[in-house]
Write the structure tokens for this entry.
Amino acid sequence: MRQGLALKIDVHTHILPPALPDLGARYGSGGFVRMEHLRPGSARLTIDGAFFRDVPETCYNPALRLEECDRHGVGVQVLSTVPVMFSYRARPEHALDLARLLNDHIAATVREHPRRFVGLGTLPMQDPDAAVREMERCVRELGLLGVQIGTHVNAWNLDRPELFPVFQCASDLGACVFVHPWEMLGSERMPKYWLPWLVGMPAELALGLCSLIFGGVLERLPRLRIAFAHGGGAFPGTLGRIEHGFHARPDLCAVDNPVSPRSYLGKFFVDSLVHDPDTLRFLLRLVGPDRVALGSDYPFPLGEEVPGRMIETMADLAPDVKDLLLAGAALQFLGRRREDFLP
């Protein structure tokens, strides 16, 4: 971290190992990511031979990653896997094996740079018992501070009773949970214009948040530290409609939790990745600056190229508010102190 600058903690960054085994051969089935280094500076991800995406070397080279962090004044990155690696559709034993491989790599990276990196594990969520065991291993053995999960687990939304023990385990362990969209609903109707990422992702996050609120998960677990990527997606902008629906049709909306959705504002975190100063101002009024943590989606193109630049250049934000956005909210989400990361 460059000297003389305020601490910046980026809660939304993705990492992969420098190489992956042949997962299809390892598990004897398809649907897994293959990583190929076809040219210097990037790697190609394919699934069953079909192109998925290219990832820059900063996604799998921690040294280059830290060089870029230093150029951008980022003191700490929170590392999580790329969501395509969730593998919730795989057989549970295969998803667990892959999660352990990825989590071991993240933990090793954090151990090499404990003041620059924090790790979040991934879980085989299609098998909640195995997910609980792996979360316990992540926290108690690997030293990770929490986990990243998807906005749904195949056909299960996050209010599904089978998933509640996973959230309860996180609450009991004091582990944070970062919710990231994946396999966006309606993708079959959005083949053009990158719409699954532009429209589907915000919808997925609103679905995840509404499921946890209406399903009573946040009500039953008030100590759960949970954050939602991309500023909470469509949820903030549609809260008025959600709240109105709750009061207009309690027979449909309040069947599992009688508490107003608006009551949960300030009880969950979101990241700052909204790409628009006015949207960020609205988000700050809605949930408070102590619940909005810097997130960049590093190192991908839909993220913020220089993490925190929009916050830093908003002249109307007071210094104490900027500090909350750049570091303070992240520290609360992670359950850590500023001193843990200062050189």
Q: What stands out?
A: The CA atoms of residues 242 and 261 lie 7 Å apart. The chain has a mean pLDDT of 96. DSSP finds twelve helices and 13 strands in the chain.
